[in-house]
Write a structure and sequence with these properties.
The strands form ten sheets. Strands 10, 11, 12, 13, 14, 15 and 18 form a seven-stranded mixed beta sheet that branches. Strands 2-1-26-27 form a four-stranded parallel beta sheet, with helices on one face. The protein is globular and about 105 Å long. With about 800 residues, the protein is of the alpha+beta class. Helix 3 (about 85-90) packs across helix 4 (about 95-115), helix 20 (about 660-680) runs parallel beside helix 22 (about 705-725) and helix 22 (about 705-725) packs antiparallel against helix 23 (about 730-735). It contains 25 helices and 34 strands. The two termini are about 65 Å apart. It binds ligand ANZ and zinc ion. Ligand ANZ binds near residues 249 and 334.
């Protein structure tokens, strides 16, 4: 018998799919559309098991939808700008462009060996001018509408990478990439005004019913809306100096015993001038300027501070409160100055204990609170003048009202979300299309001159500022407005800008008149199913949501949200750890594929864990998947000359089927029902188990007559079709061997027939003390305990027993249950 030979089969079908353009999508076709998208890869060189998993999940969903009659759009591309290409340039003296495009070539080949149903004609590569010119155009429109602006901003800066780092790129005060020291540096940078959309980004989450709750929670937290009061505290001994403080707990204002200020606060240096504490505070501020501004990091840090020598005045009781510079205050949240209430806030409590600051309770519950802790619950106010004895919820409002009436405070809503810094002082990114002119100021590049091309053959040394600063032919330009010599912006876009709209460009990848076609985009957006890693829960997914709203407001599209349904797949781990070079536990998909075939790699990726969970790599699991495919092969191959595949078993004369045939037919129908449901819910591992069970049942099925042959033909057809989204090459081959002449990839998903679901039941007599009282229907293999329970709970039995206790139950298998009462 012919052996299962994956490498021959897979090449053959990939070639045929490609030649017949099987996965080319006609976007203007009417009908049920389905846009299935996986987060596009960064072209690092080789694909890894995480990619295999991500793209197999996406491909399985896309193919399942195709077989269910949808017009599926399933594109792929490369997120091609970014730091690693520059690092390769520094380390190996390779041009970033060459490095990137070579990697893309290699990865395309690898992706093709996995048989994914991509519409390759619509591939996009973000580092090519035909992509980024549209990003430049969108940026210019944003700038003209005030959605993009330039401001001086202090940022985490890594001296050795010469680059600004986002907060999450600062790990333990060090650069995430090189481990180098991080410092604060202030210079002009470009920002997108994301904060203008904070409220909409939050409220539109109501539309994202099919996103994992975990991701929504993370975004909600990132946007961080809180309601509170802004209170003005005067600087003691000064007529015009004061600070606004944001608090969510105005009810605790009589408990303020210190105030803390961020050591990086711009007003701090000025107010401490010439006071005895000046030097100490300056030193403390300098130390604080090193390291992170990340809130998460600040929160875990040992609380430290120094007295500034300054007092502020509590606007409610005119008490003088000492001001401390403290390392836990975040400069870019609210105003960077905070009321310290040690009696009612844990962090303030620790700080007060450490620096011997008084602790004054102003809210008490009606039970005894434990000593030596901050009380953060609700209760009644004490020691709070006219507000004493109010419950603290009322007091929040009353105190805020009082402050408002006296012009010392106001109610406000505060967001944690910051504007998005999109400037990168890097070479390998899309140039920001701006000119600085001594006469005209900031000038945008006229649209007909786009794209601003990133120059080739730039010297990248890894020291100094942005490499583009050194390219005189790039920097020097005549002002588009006045024609005088001017300078170009040398910052490039954060690569998150490219990934914020690429899903739109797939819809019009070759357009040279617009970023994407509005009519098509309105029809295909939102993306029906988006699949990617949970590590993108916030930045990428939030920026893409933001961009959608911007594009809508600029008139490019009429939609609000980019992704309707989101699946975040888990990591691929081996020996309990994420696969990584440093751990030496990396499995090379290429080797796996050449040994067992792409179908085994795909099957294993789907079978070893549910998509959202981490997948623990196991060689046994891979071997098991391969064995299963061989089992199906060996089961079906002998039938290929004997049987005809059947779309359904409706041609059988049902009443003539033997009991065992009815049972098998029923099993096939049930399997279709369950697998369909599992596929719809992305429970691929369960679907595969069901197909394994079907294979086992099929192996034992005995074909005796014409009717049975129809049943077997239906079973074979259903089994092949249901395996197709997961192991498509295998299934195409088998389909062809059964003399089918169309692609199974485009066949209809099988239907089950409820009438052929056979409920195998026996009647069992229920007797009480030997007298027949009822009859129950149960499946012949129901456990004895369950039969006893059914009998004892029968309505008729209960009536006859009339409260009398049952002493014993005797079961005669499949015949009688006798209750002794
Ligand atoms: C006094 C107070 C008393 C506070 C109390 C809390 C409990 P959310 O809800 O996250 O918005 N805060 C304000 N600005 C801060 C900054 N820049 N860095 C660090 N902490 C800051 O948090 C609001 C609370 O966080 C504010 O309310 C303030 O402390 C603190 F029993 O004011 B609270
Ligand atoms: Zn000019």
């Amino acid at each position: 018998m012919e052996k299962y030979n994956p490498s021959a089969i897979e090449k053959k079908w990939q070639k045929r799919w490609n030649e017949s353009k099987l996965f080319k999508t006609h976007l203007d076709k009417l009908g049920k559309n389905q846009y299935v998208l996986e987060m596009f890869p960064y072209p690092s060189g080789k694909i890894h098991m995480g990619h295999v998993r991500n793209y197999t999940i996406g491909d399985t969903i896309a193919r399942f939808k195709m077989m269910n009659g949808y017009n599926v759009f399933h594109p792929i591309g490369f997120d091609a700008f970014g730091m690693p290409a520059e690092n390769a340039a520094i380390a190996h003296n390779i041009e970033p462009k060459k490095w990137t495009l070579d990697n893309i070539k290699q990865m395309e080949e690898e992706l093709k060996t996995l048989g994914f149903s991509y519409d390759w004609d619509r591939e996009i590569i973000t580092c090519l001018p035909e992509y980024y010119r549209w990003e430049q155009k969108i940026f210019i429109e944003m700038y003209k509408k005030g959605m993009a602006y330039r401001k001086k901003s202090s940022a985490n800066y890594c001296g050795s990478c010469h680059t600004v780092l986002a907060n999450e790129q600062v790990v333990d005060d060090k650069c995430w990439r090189c481990g180098g020291e991080v410092e604060k540096k202030s210079f002009y940078q470009w920002f997108f005004r994301v904060t203008d959309y904070a409220e909409e980004l939050l409220s539109d989450m109501d539309q994202l019913k099919e996103w994992p709750e975990k991701v929504l929670t993370m975004q909600r937290h990132w946007i961080g809306k809180s309601y509170g009061t802004m209170i003005n505290f005067k600087v003691a001994g000064s007529d015009n100096q004061s600070f606004d403080l944001f608090t969510t707990r105005p009810d605790t204002i009589y408990g303020v015993t210190f105030i803390s200020i961020s050591p990086l606060h711009p007003k701090l240096a000025e107010i401490i001038k010439n006071n005895p504490q000046e030097k100490v505070v300056k030193q403390f501020a300098e130390r604080s300027a090193m390291g992170t501004t990340s809130e998460a990091e600040l929160a875990t840090r040992e609380k430290e501070g120094v007295f500034t020598g300054i007092y502020l005045i509590n606007p409610l009781n005119n008490e003088q409160i000492p001001l401390y510079a403290a390392n836990f205050v975040v400069m870019d949240y609210a105003t960077g100055v905070v009321m310290g209430v040690p009696a009612h806030d844990k962090r303030d409590y620790d700080f007060a204990k450490k620096y011997d600051i008084p602790i004054k309770y102003v809210i008490l519950p009606d039970f005894d609170i434990p000593k030596d802790v901050a009380y953060t619950g609700s209760g009644k106010l004490v020691n709070s003048d006219r507000f004493s004895r109010m419950d603290n919820k009322t007091a929040k409002n009353e105190i805020t009202k009082f402050l408002e009436n006296n012009k010392k405070g106001r109610k406000i809503t505060q967001y944690r979300l910051r504007d998005w810094n999109i400037s990168r002082q890097r070479y390998w990114g899309a140039p920001i299309p701006i000119v600085y002119c001594d006469h005209c100021g900031i000038v945008t590049i006229p649209e007909k001159e786009l794209p601003v091309l990133l120059p080739d053959y730039v010297n990248i040394t890894g020291v100094g500022g942005s490499p583009l600063d050194e390219v005189k032919s790039f920097v020097k330009i005549y002002c588009p407005k006045c024609g005088m010599p001017a300078r170009r912006e040398t910052d490039t876009f954060d690569t998150f800008v490219e990934s914020s709209w690429y899903f739109l460009r797939y819809l019009s990848p070759k357009s040279d008149t617009e970023p994407f076609n509005k009519t098509i985009a309105n029809k295909w957006i939102s993306v029906d199913q988006y699949i990617g890693g949970i590590e993108h829960a916030v930045m990428h997914l939030l920026y893409a949501r933001y961009f959608m709203k911007v594009l809508r407001d600029l008139g490019f599209i009429d939609k609000d949200e980019p992704f309707k349904r989101l699946l975040t797949q888990g990591m691929v781990i081996k020996d309990g750890a994420k696969m990584s070079k440093s751990k030496g536990n990396v499995v090379d998909p290429g080797k796996l594929i050449s040994r067992f075939g792409a179908d085994t790699a795909r099957l294993f990726s789907l079978f070893a864990a549910p998509p959202e969970k981490d997948l623990d790599w196991s060689d046994d699991g891979v071997a098991g998947s391969y064995r299963f495919l061989n089992r199906v092969w060996n089961l079906l191959l002998p039938f290929t000359n004997e049987l005809h595949l059947q779309k359904s078993a409706d041609a059988v004369i049902y009443d003539e089927l033997s009991h065992s045939s009815k049972k098998f037919l029923s099993f096939v129908n049930r399997t279709i029902e369950k697998v369909t449901e599992n596929m719809e819910h992305h429970h691929f591992n369960t679907a595969i188990s069901k197909l394994m069970e079907l294979t086992n049942e099929f192996n034992q099925y005995e074909i005796k007559d014409k009717n049975d042959r129809i049943v077997a033909g239906f079973a074979a057809s259903a089994l092949i079709k249901m395996l197709t989204p997961m192991v498509p090459h295998f299934c195409e081959e088998m389909w062809e061997k059964f003399s089918e002449n169309k692609f199974v990839s485009k066949a209809d998903w099988p239907n089950y027939n409820e009438d052929q679901i056979f409920i195998d039941q026996v009647n069992i007599a229920v007797t009480i003390n030997g007298k027949l009282r009822d009859e129950i229907q149960v499946s012949p293999d129901l456990e004895e305990e369950k039969i006893k329970l059914l009998a004892a709970e029968s309505q008729k039995v209960l009536r006859f027993l009339n409260g009398k206790p049952i002493k014993r139950i005797i079961v005669v298998k499949n015949r009688v249950v006798n209750l002794v009462a």
